[in-house]
Amino acid sequence: MIRLLAGAALLLIAASAPLAISGMSSSPAPAPPEVVSCPAVLNTAPGPAGVAQALSSLDLRRAWRAFVGFRVIGIPVPESARRRFVDAYFDGRLPASARFVAIELSRLTLSEAARIADRARSLDQSLVLLRPAPVALLRIFVERAEDPEAHREVCRAQAEPLAALVADPALGERAFNLLRTAGSVPETAIRALSARLSRDSWTRAALASLGQAAAPALLASLDSDDPCRRAVAAWVLAGLGDSTHVDRIIRAAVPELARDGVPGNAAFAVRALAALGDRARPVARALLKSADDQVVAGALQVLLKTGGAAPEDLEAARPRVERLAARAAEAGDEAAIGIETRAALGVARGAMDVAPPPESLKPSQAESSGRIW
Questions:
Q1: Closest Cα partner for 290 from 372, 189, 168?
Q2: N or C terminus: fewer CB in 10 A for the chain?
Q3: pLDDT digits (tens, 9 = 90+) for 275-299
Q4: Left (φ > 0), alpha (ψ -120 to 50) or beta: where does 49 sit?
Q5: What is the CA radius of gyration of the chain?
Q6: CB 172 within 8 A of CB 166
């Protein structure tokens, strides 16, 4: 055993040491390590001023490696020296500094972002690597982007930060168009669109363009505390054509037909029910018996839009619609009557000489027992 151990030790020594056998030689011994001196670094003043001086005397890549070393050992580097690497990154000369640049620019102002965008060789390529990209720089990018097709790559790379800008009153529509063109619309962007349904008409077309991907956000909007948002969401959701949501749409739309609803909601409710087509006709026909003139007018409008209004329905609803037209400016929603209903009944716009409504009809019909839905 002792002999075996001794032999193994000798083998290890032979393997690790240069061969020195007479008449034979191994490969030439390696030359002594080259001593690299950097007088610029060694002969500078101490402190941040010396660091800045040292880095400025080196070419870009050596300066970057020296900067990384300073950061590792905790030597502070002044802003004037760091700015060199930021500028080089946006010139396309130092892509390796992307992570440093993202941190360095985390508090970037809009004016500074505009300066960077003006000088950048390729703002798109620079933004692709920045994770996360500075919000100010993304705002400048969205403001200046003219052709969404030309920015697909950066929009995919920055989809989530751009989605946050969809909620911005000034940039929301532009941010969404960029994401949609890139084929990358996060859930956060869809929720931001649904939150703006009652305020911005463009969000309705935007959600409709997403198809079934927008359905969860629209269904959530049906439970909103904002009645206008509920009515608009019902309309957009109905336009998607998914039969599984018919009952939810009807439950959300029908109450908005009432005279005591939010002005304008009746028109959205009519559109929502009309978009359901045949599936809304039984409900609309039942609503013709409502005690609320505005509900009757809205239901008749739905039937006219879907081809389900019989001549007797028109005649039965005529006095109700005329009475609503006379009082629309006072207590109702003029849009509930609709162009189709006016044309079918020959009802003129504005006040008319008709009998006053019965005592049971009041500006607010919230507690009317005759309402049907």
A1: 372
A2: N
A3: 999 999 999 999 999 998 889 989 9
A4: alpha
A5: 37
A6: yes
